[in-house]
Amino acid sequence: MQRSLRPTPSTPIKTLLLFALCCVIFGCTSDPERDFRQFAAAAESGDRDGLLDGLSASSRAFLVGMLAAAPDGDRILAPPGLPVPVEVVGVSREGDRARLEVREPGGATFPVLMVREGRRFKVCLFSIQQEWAKKRVGN
Predict the structure, then answer these.
(1) Tens digit of pLDDT for each residue in 80-102?
(2) Which domains does the chain possess?
(3) Which of 5, 15, 22, 50 has a Cα-to-Cα distance from 131 of 20 to 30 A?
C-alpha cells in the first residue's frame, strides 16, 4: 500500500499541535527582555506581587524574609512610582541564563542577570550582586 504525500485536512492541525508541544517542552516562548520589562513595569507601578513574581525563587525567598523583619517592609519593597531604568541595550543568552545590559537615566549601564524558571526568565538578585561587586573593584 502506497501512502500519499499530499496533505490531508488534519495535517495543519497536527503541525500546530506539534509546534505547541515543542514550545512547552523547550520553552521557546521565553524572552528575557520581555520578562525584565514586565518586572520593571511591576516595580514602577508598585505591584508587589508582580515584582516578586519577576524574581527567581531564591531571590524572592531571601527578599521576602528580609522584608518581613523590617518595619514597613511592604512599603519599602514596591513604593508606587519607583523609577526603574528599562532601556535594555544588550541581551545575551546561554541556555537557561540571560544577561541584560540596562542603561539607567544617567547613562551608566549595569548588568541584570536572569535565570529561566519554568517558562519565564526571572531576575536573580544574587548574581546581580556578584556582578556589581566585580564592577566596584574593577574586575
Answers:
(1) 555 565 789 999 999 999 999 98
(2) 28-137 (3.10.450)
(3) 50
